[in-house]
Amino acid sequence: MAIEPLIVGAPFGNYLVREGVTSTAGTFTWEHRAGVLKRIWRVMRTVRYNRRQQAWINKLGLPNPGLRSVRESMAERIVSLHGFTEHEWQSLIDYAARMEPAPLAIELNISCPNVSKVVTDEVLVACRAALAHQDRFLTIAKLPPVRWLELAAPLYDMGIRWFHCCNTIPTPGGGVSGKPLKNYSLWAVGDLRDRFGDDVHLIGGGGVSCTADLDDFLSAGADHIAVASLLLNPLRWPQINRFRDHLRARLPQQTDRLAPASAGPPGN
Ligand SMILES: Cc1cc2nc3c(=O)[nH]c(=O)nc-3n(C[C@H](O)[C@H](O)[C@H](O)COP(=O)(O)O)c2cc1C
Question: Where in the sequence is the domain holding 95, given as residue range(s)?
Answer without folding.
Answer: 6-262
